[in-house]
Amino acid sequence: MTEETMTFEAPVYSAQGKQGGMQQLPEATFDGTVNMPVMHQAVKAFLANRRQGTAKTKTRGEVTGGNQKPWKQKGTGRARQGSTRAPNWPGGGTVFGPIPRSYTQIVPRQVRSLARKSAFNARAREGAVKLVDALTFSAPSTKAILALIEKLGASGKKVLLLTDGVKPNVYLSARNLAHAHVMPYTDASTYHILWSDVVVIESSALTQTTAEG
User: Which residues pair with 10 in a beta bridge?
Assistant: First the structure.
């Protein structure tokens, strides 16, 4: 973790993609802090918490059949067997197979907050944070989103677009794009920020209280 305090600026674009001036990013979030271990912990927990944990195999006590000895104990010349449902038989039970379990990992709130801040600062250091004016789509338009991404110079890159609150039309416009993801600024997690190559934020969203993740 770096101790120095830094300030960052980001280019501001209009909703149509026309570049304007530069705007200083709020120091409360963009102060230069980059804590790699904390980011790793947050991303690892995020991915673990998405697992369903429903994998299940049957033990020998749960498979059907096997109530009778397949042959007598002695005199056949074959190895003694007690059940056709033993693990060494085809169709038998599984030894030490997976059972339903929870993969949930709990990360303290302050750790999540630090990880999120670190992710934002990591992108800001790379010059990968851009600001846009308010996006007001009267209807979903993938074409409009693609045009905006191109004018931002982010074509072919993974783009995280953070809106000021919930904006369904903006979300629906990018839903079919594998390289773009739209969500409210307060919902962005460490994983989403690090997933992206470019972070595009609506200018008005920077004043909101953020969620940790």
Answer: 23
> What's the CA gap between 33 and 110, in Å, rounded?
14
pLDDT digit string (tens) for 46-97? 999 999 999 999 999 999 998 899 999 999 999 999 999 999 999 999 999 9
Q: What is the DSSP string of 18-32?
A: -EEEEEEPPTTT-SS
Question: Are the beta carbons of 15 and 103 closer than 8 angstroms?
Answer: no
The CATH code for residues 9-50+106-207 is 3.40.1370.10
Please list the residues that pair with 180 across neighbouring strands: 159
H or E stretch at 132: strand 129-132
Q: Are 118 and 39 in contact (CB under 8 A)?
A: yes
H or E, element range at 146: helix 142-151
CA 71/CA 50 separation, integer angstroms:
48
Domain ranges (residues) in the chain: 9-50+106-207, 52-102
pLDDT surpassing 50 at residue 157: yes
Q: How far apart are CA 168 and CA 155, in angstroms?
A: 23
Q: Which pLDDT belongs to residue 4?
A: 59
191 residue type, one letter: Y
12 forms beta bridges with 131
Place of tokens 């980059």: 34
Residue 206: pLDDT over 70: yes
> How confident is the model over 87-97, as pLDDT tens digits?
999 999 999 99
